Predict the structure of FUSC family protein.
Amino acid sequence: MPPPCREPRFMSATQQSAPAARPATSNTAGVTLAEVGRRLRPRLPVLPVGWGQVFRTLLAFTIALYAAYALELDSPSSAGMTVLIVAGASRGAVLSKSLYRALGTVVGAGVSVALVAWFAQAPWLFIIGFAIWLGLCTFLASLLRYFRSYGAVLAGYTIALVALAAVQDPENVFHLAMARIAVVSLGVFVTALVFLATDRGPGAGQVAAGITRLVAAVGGLTRQALEQGDVAALRATRSRVAGELTALDQTVEFVSVEDTGFGRHADAIRLAVAELFAMLTAGQRTGRLLASPALAHDPRIPAMRLRLMDLATRMEALAPGTGFDDLHRDARAAQAEAAQATGACRDLAVLAALERADAMLRQMVRILDALADLREDRPSSPALRLRVYSNPVTAARNGTRAALAVFLGGAFWLVSGWSAGANILTMLGPMCALLATTDSAAAASIGFFKGLCLAVPTGLFVGYALLPMMNSFPLLLVCTLPFLLVAIRLAQQPRFMGIATAFQIFFMATISPGNPMSYHLATALDGAFANLIGGACGVLAFRVLLPPDPVAEARVLQRSLVKAVRRVALKPLMPWLVWEHLQHQKLVRLSRRLAAIAPSRRGDAISDGGAAVLIGRALIRARLIAMRPDMPPAGAALVARGVGAFRQLREAPEAVAAEARRAAADLAALEEANPSTLHAAAMLHEAASILAERPHFFLRGHDWLAERPAPPAAASAGAPA
C-alpha cells in the first residue's frame, strides 16, 4: 500500500516539488529478494504463456513510476521506461540485462561528463565526439552476445540522455548524471524484485527437458541420414534444429545467472550442444560412407551402420523423464568396438568410414555423459572453453551507421539552430544502439521507425487530450497501461518486435509524465517532430547510405569458413571441438543469410559449408595423429605434406585433393606403416574425398552463391555433409 503521508501526485505546473530523496540500499538485498520470491511464488496463479510476462512488466512499471514520484526524482518517467527496456522473457534475462544496464549507465554517465567538460563550447566537436562514442559502443554491442552487448548499448545512448541535457548548462552535468544513475537504478531494482518474486523461471529441470528434446531431434536426423532418406526434407529439418541448438545457448546463459547450481553444469552443457551440432553436420556424410556399395564387402561396415541406426533410433525415442542408462551403456560398448575395429583395419576407404562411425559414437557417449551428469547433479569441469564467433565486418558496419546517423542528426540541429534539435540525438542514441543487438539492423530500422510514427501521435493524444483531465496517479495508469499492455504483448511476436519495442519507449517519452507535470503543446510538438527527424536519420544511415547486403555478408561467412580450413594447415592447432564450434556458428549465420536471399538454398549452408567443417576436422585429426610417439619421421613428413597442400585450397582445390590423396597413398605404403600412419592416411583420404565433391565452394573467383539449387536426386548423389 502507498504511504499515506507521501502520496505521489500527478502534479500541476503550478505545484512545486521538494528536494529529491536518495533511495536506500541494503547489504542483504539478494537474500531478501530470494526470500520474497520463495514465499510468494507458490501462491501465485499460473498465467497463460506470454501473459505472465506482460503483467509482470506492467506491475514493475507501475511500482517503478510510483516510487520515482514518491522519491521526487528528476524525470520519473525514465524509471518506467527503464522497466520497459529491461524486462525480458525470463528471470535470468532480466537479471543479466539489469546488471549490464547498470554498468553501462555508469560508464555512459562518466563519458557524458567528460564530453561536456571538453566540448561544451565547441558544439561541432561535441557532435563528433558523441558520434564516435556511440559508433564505438554500437560496434561493441554487435560483437558481444546477449545482454553483455546491452552494457555497450547503455554506455552509448546514456550520453544522449545526460550530456545533451547539460549542453545548455554545463555546470549542472554532474547532477544530471547522478540523477540519471538514480532513476535507472530504481527501474533496474524494481524490475529484478518483481521478476524474482513472481516468475518461477524455467529451472534446471525444464532446461534439461529441452536438451533431451534436442538430443532426440538430432537422433532422428541421424537415423534419417543413415537410412539415406529424403535429402530435401532432411536439409530443411536440419536447418531448423541447428537454429534451436544455437538458441539453447542463450537459455543456458540466462538460467545460469539465476541458478548457481545449474551454472556449474553450463560449460559441460555447451560442450554437449557442440557435440550435437557436430553430429548434425556429419550425419549425412557418415550415412553415405556406411551405405556405400563399394564398402559393403567388409562385414564391419554394414554391421556398424545397423548398430548406429539402432542407437540413433533409441536417441530419437528419448523424452524428458525417461531413462537412458541402457542406451548410455550400449553406446559405450559400441564405441569400444568401433575403436577396436579401426585399430585392426588396413583398407583406407573402409578405415575412413569406420573412423567416421567411431567419431559419431564418441559424440553420442559424450552427449549422454552430459545428460547423466545433469540428471545426477554431478557438475564436471571441462578442460575446453568454447569461443563465440563475432563478425567484425558486420559490427564495423553497424558502428559506422550509428556514427553517421548521429552526425547527420547533429549537423541538422546545429545548422538549423532549432531549439528542439537536441531531441534528434536523444532519439538516435537508443535507436542506433538497440538496432545493433538485432540480427538485421537495416531491416529492424524500418520497424523501429514505424513504431516511432505510431508512438508520437498516440503519445500526443494521451498527453494532451486525456491527461489534462486527470489528477491522480491511478488515472495516469488508466490512460497509459492499456497501450503498453498491447505493445508488450505484440513485442513477444518476432514480426512486431521492432515496432512494439519502439512504441513502448517513445510512447512514454512523448508523454513524459513529470513531477510536476507541465503542458506546453508547442514544445511537445517540437520534440515530436525532432523524434521523427531522428528516426528518419537512422533509417537513412542504416537503410539508404549503408544499405543491407546479405549477399556480401554471406560471402564473408563463406570465405571465413574456407580461411578457417587453411588456418588448420598453417597455424598451431586449437582443440578440434573449439574450432568446430566456431564454424558451426558461421553455418547458422550463413543459413540465415541464404534464407533472406535464396530460401531454396538455405540447406546448402550446412551441406556445402559443412563440407569445410568436415575437412577441417579430418585435417586436425591427421595433425594430432602425426604428433604421436609411434609415428615414424617419414610418416610425419608425409602428413605435413598432405596437410600443407591445403594452403592452396582457394587457388586449386582439385589439385589439393589430388595431392592429399597421393600423400595418403604414400603413407599407407610406408615400410614402417603402423596403425597411426594408416589412421593419418585415412584422414587425408577423407579430406581429399570431401574436397573433390565440393571444390566449387572453396575456389576463389567461383560465385558459389549464384549456383542454382540442385534437384533432390543430384543432391542425394553428392552431398557430403
In short: The chain has 28 helices and no strands.
